[in-house]
Amino acid sequence: MVSFQRQNQILKILNTQQFARYSDLAKQLFVSPATVRRDTLDMENRGLIRRVLNGVTLSEEPKDVPYDYSVTLNLDAKRVVATRANRLIKSGMSLFIDSSTTSLVLIRELKDIDELYIVTNGILVALEASKRNGWYVSLVGGTVNKMLENISGDKATRDIENYQADLAVFSCRGLIATGATDANDQEANIKRAFAANADQVMLLVDHTKVGKHQLYMSAPMNTLDYIATDKVMPEAIVNAARANHIRIFD
């Protein structure tokens, strides 16, 4: 088992028990305590966990986490968001879809859609969508991010400019009254390009991201047409959405 696989396992363990001792992790991963300490030091430096006395715990605000771990977080909420977003997607539409785990859940939850034209920067989103007969999938070119299972960079944003979609669908790391935000400038650039080249824009956001913000603005409120969420949002965000004529699916 290589380092990124061990780190993924550590995150899964912490998601179930909140705290783990170095000695217990070493036994579960079949490695030495020194190896566990090196892995957890790297994870702490990336903001994924916190090292405490004799062990580790999850960071309160993890940033870039492995994709297959991220997709398991708040899965029920993501399914609710996906179900509410479904009502807007019709057979024959062309879509921009981002690489987020919420978008992956949306693809899996779409039913009775015979034909779609999808452009995405998500590697697993593209693979999942390509399983469906009658769905035509294009993956933008650019730089591969293995941890986030996506493609980004200047080439990716230039590729997006070659398309015009009926609807852009993407998630975010935080939603406040001024708009959707992300922790990664490359992700934010992709979403801005999607929005600029789509007739309409729908944001997917579950309650764990509402009221929080990250460094980069990926979608100012006045660029959105729809927000799909799982719970009623704070009054400030609802008022901002109304002021910008955004329809909320909650």
UniProtKB/TrEMBL annotation:
Any single Pfam family the record assigns to this protein: HTH_DeoR
GO MF annotation terms: DNA-binding transcription factor activity
Keywords: Transcription, Transcription regulation
Superkingdom of origin: Bacteria
Annotated PROSITE patterns: HTH_DEOR_2
PANTHER family referenced in this protein's UniProt entry, alphabetically: AGA OPERON TRANSCRIPTIONAL REPRESSOR-RELATED, HTH-TYPE TRANSCRIPTIONAL REGULATOR SRLR-RELATED
Protein name: Transcriptional regulator
Source species of the chain: Lacticaseibacillus rhamnosus (strain ATCC 53103 / LMG 18243 / GG) (Lactobacillus rhamnosus)
The organism's taxonomic lineage, starting at the top: Bacteria, Bacillati, Bacillota, Bacilli, Lactobacillales
